[in-house]
Hints:
Shape: rod-shaped
Number of strands: 17
Oligomer: single chain
Helix content: under 10%
Radius of gyration: 30 Å
Amino acid sequence: AADILYELVDPETNVLHIEDGKIYADNAGTPQVKAYTENSVKYNEAEKVISVTVNQAPQTIEWTQELPELKAGDEPFQLVAVASSGLDVSFVTSDPAIAYVDAENKLHAVASGEVTITAKQAGTNNIAAVESAPRAMTIQAAVIIDRVDPGDTRRKQQVVWEFEAKYVEDL
């Protein structure tokens, strides 16, 4: 059999490299490779150009904690999840008017209602983006209680806000 040689059609590509007659993938993309043989006593020269697709590597996200029961006014809760790629994970909520996540991935509950929280990793040129399954939370409505001290002639009014948040289930 004739020796098959390989050559990148566009040597400036950073997707593949050829070393010792072997093709190695470096990045995602679709470069063209020329496979050819040279003339010999037994074989004629032959050439074929093919496109080689190198896909982005997949990744997954794993939540490393359960969502807590929060009350409004509690300290924000630090969300933590890990991407199999080792890249940073961010979080979003389905309704920032009910709960939002700040730049430090801390969850703030601000109003009553249903909300889902999703962990995301944006990916890179070589690693595909990924989202976790959303996790649902119900933040209970605020209860306003008016309390008047009958001994206080100024009749001050104190408002007490009571909230309850509970983890419902993964969607």
